[in-house]
Design a protein that fits this description.
By secondary structure, the protein is α/β, with parallel strands linked by helices. It has helices spanning 3-19, 33-44, 60-72, 83-97, 102-120, 132-135, 141-148, 150-175, 189-195, 214-223, 227-230, 237-240, 243-247, and strands spanning 24-28, 48-55, 75-80, 125-127, 181-183. Strands 3-2-1-4-5 form a 5-stranded parallel β-sheet.
Length: 251
Amino acid sequence: MNKMEKELLEKIKTCIKTNLDKKKIGIAFSGGVDSSIISKICSDMGYDITLLTIGFPKSHDILFAKQVNLQLKFSHSILEIDSNTFQTISTKIEQIIKTENLSWIENCIAFYYVSKLAKNLGLDIIVTANGIDELFCGYNAYREAISIGEFRVLEVMNFKLDNEIKMMKAVNQIASEFDIKIIQPLLSGDFIEFAKTIPISEKIHDSEDLLRKHIIRKLARYVGVPEISYMKRKKALQYGSKIHKELLKFK
């Protein structure tokens, strides 16, 4: 592990420690590199973690999360979404957050179920890896941006960060119905400032880069995240859980 990767690891640990005052936490977990690296680092720091996975039966996230945790071996709880009540719950959430942004709606629905699962387990804190995709070029939009230039990558990054921070406020509004607090250590101001100092070449190589987030993947390998996780391409929560597909049925 080189100096930059060591510094990144220490910054992540500092942000986790600064933002978490409880040792018993749930972690929103899809099995992807982002949620896996946060889970592994929190566990290594001595937190009592429970992985929380939601999705429709046989959805990608449920199947993949189980596969990854066969190697991680953490406490893991899964909630399968009931299709019979999904429309009622989705409509209720849309009425609460009052937005036409489909991504916000889908994420709020997902975290409704994650919060419900946490509540059933007696947890009141959920940690997420939100911020990694924004700060380390995880989205496909960064491929088009890098073909224009690094200045465009930074413009996209700032736009996506602003959107993500606002969206997570809506997510917390939904989670508060269960007396749950969603914490995103990597969306803290200190971490955002640090992550922006990491060269873009450590995040995305060119417009053909389908993997991206390279320094995160290297770090994940170093801390012991399974290879099937740190080499996996991104699949957003709303797609991996099948929430997007189900929501479109009654739109």
